């Protein structure tokens, strides 16, 4: 794998060295294209591509991606820049390390975790989102309903009844730019999770509290990354959003975008609203504390029964109080997990308070983790609780479920039992 990544890196390097600056999300080779752009040639060859990688159109027809190099899997092509041995990007997604100095802590872990077999500390990967194949999304796809925000019974949707989802880098990210934070695609698994009312009016689901991040509202339209907006001019102090400074090692997630109808944030959007594009039954869609239930077969031995889940996109204050989880104010030291802050909260002031939201990335990393599951967190059969009988974690995943802390440390950090 490393030899292949190195070969791909050499093949693409000639184009990348001509690309000015660092290729931030929606900038340079990943977006903000001009009418006379040369960025296309960094990845594509119009008539002479030898890569077998394809893409599917809206009618299900496959076409060549016309990529440079001989890669056969899209993640292999992405690792040409974002791999352990690559020089094309400061973000080593394979190893989960930030290699630069200006946009995070050098050699620190990336916010999303890592996608390769080991991380920079040498620990083995215990779960990830990237595989060379297809799988079902828990709480969606094979294991649940396939519509965004579904809450009712999933009639007949047993294990294996739904379509599997091919999982690779492009399953979640759009390499040509998107309205969302970190190139998160505007459509996943056929569900709209961002997009554009027109070229000048992005409607993202996911934004950020990073310095200078383009967020806000114009009427009912959220301002995000515009199509063809020149990111390099922004970095130089021009454009609509001057001074944008990404941070690849400090989580600065924002609450869901606001609108006239949802001034406090649309609870069906944000990072959690994006994730339920695949994990379709994992988020509250109605009255809080009454709609965190769906009926489906999770493949864990319990069969087709009601499933209860943790509330998402809710204020941390829902668990505050002397008889509940936390007191009225929470410091980052007390909650070493990232919460979602209001879009108006600056990066410098983004500290955890009871007004912040719990979303998917509060407990999970997106790419992969090396955390371990032992004791009651590692059982073979959920219907027969016997510690340390499993193979790395509680079914149905059988792994560490992309959690940020060992065992169920993510529970204890907030609930303080």
What is the makeup of the main sheet?
2 strands, antiparallel
Strand residues, percent = 5-15%
What's the β-strand tally? 18
Mean pLDDT: 77
Proportion in helices: 10-25%
SS-based class: little secondary structure
The number of helices is 7
| CA gyration radius, whole angstroms | 21 Å
Order of helices and strands: HEEHEEEEEHEEEEEEHHEEEEHEH
| Spans of at least 5 consecutive residues with low confidence | 1-21, 147-160, 231-239, 322-329
From the spread of the alpha carbons, the general shape counts as globular
Terminal Cα separation, in Å?
A: 44 Å
The largest beta-sheet arranges its strands as 1-2
What do you see in this structure?
The protein has 417 residues and is mostly loops. The protein is 12% helix and 11% strand. It contains seven helices and 18 strands. It has helices spanning 2-16, 74-82, 169-172, 231-235, 270-275, 360-363, 409-415; strands spanning 54-56, 62-64, 91-92, 97-98, 127-128, 133-135, 165-167, 187-188, 191-192, 196-198, 201-202, 217-218, 221-222, 293-297, 304-308, 314-315, 357-358, 368-369. A two-stranded antiparallel sheet has the order 1-2. The chain has a two-stranded antiparallel ribbon with strand order 3-4. Strands 5-18 form a two-stranded antiparallel sheet. A hairpin with a 6-residue loop joins β14 and β15. α1 (2-16) packs across α2. The chain starts with a helix and ends with a helix. The model is unreliable at 1-21, 147-160, 231-239 and 322-329 (pLDDT under 50).
